[in-house]
Amino acid sequence: MKKALLLFGMILMTAPIARADLTHRMSSSTQLVVNGAYTDSSRIGSTYTVSGSNIKVTDAGHFGKMTAATATAAAAQDVGEYDINTAGSAFSFSESWTQGDAVNTIGSGVDVTAGVVADMPAFGNTLSMSGGVAGTLAGTITSAGVTTLTAGGAGTSATGQFVTEIVID
User: Fold this and answer.
1) Which residues contact 6 (CB under 8 A, 6 or more apart)?
2) 3-state SS string for the chain
3) What is the largest CA-CA distance in the chain?
4) Assuming Cys at both sites, which of 39, 53, 56, 151 could form a disulfide with 85, CB separation 3.0 to 4.6 Å?
5) Where does the pLDDT of residue 106 fall: very low under 50, low under 70, confident under 90, or very high at 90 and above?
6) What is the pTM of this model?
């Protein structure tokens, strides 16, 4: 009998071990975003171009040009005076002028109230985005995983997530 018990004990010791580890994870998150207002402005400079063929400057005239401005004003245009060089011959003429931006004083040009851009600099290149208004923006997730998101005003977003994971090893 002792030998049988010893043999049975040795068999039990070599039997595979049963593992039944169980891991259960639950996580939830809510992200509420209200966009900020912004304005991006870039001043443009004055440009002047002239081209042509069979064109000359009049006796009392000159080619068009830009004139120097003050420290805060853009350059101005001084128009030229042109004439046809050889009467009766073909000619071409092209002239282009872009008025540059004046320099705004520091601290002027942009006012934002409650996320809305009220005014902005009047520069040649301006991009403006009104900010969001939170309004009724809200988000909740219960312990049961029920997600409730409430829309806000313009320029807002709400994201809710509930994740459950079961791992059996």
Assistant:
1) none
2) CHHHHHHHHHHHHHCCCCCCCEEEEEEEEEEEEECCCEEEEECCCCEEEEEEECEEECCCCCCCEEECCCCCCCCEEECCCEEECCCCCCCEEEEEEECCCCCCCCCCCCEEECCEEEECCCCCEEEEECCCCCCCCEEEECCCCCEEEECCCCCEEEEEEEEEEEEEC
3) 136
4) 56
5) low
6) 0.49
CB 37 within 8 A of CB 112: yes
What does the pLDDT look like over 59-70, one tens digit per residue?
Answer: 888 888 888 877
Is-contact 136 150, C-beta < 8 A? yes
Which amino acid does the sequence have at 51? S
Other residues' Cβ atoms within 10 Å of the Cβ of residue 115: 19
Tens-place pLDDT, residues 16-62: 666 668 888 888 899 999 888 777 778 888 899 989 999 998 888 88
The Cα 85–Cα 79 span in angstroms is 18
- Token readout for 168 is 């059996």
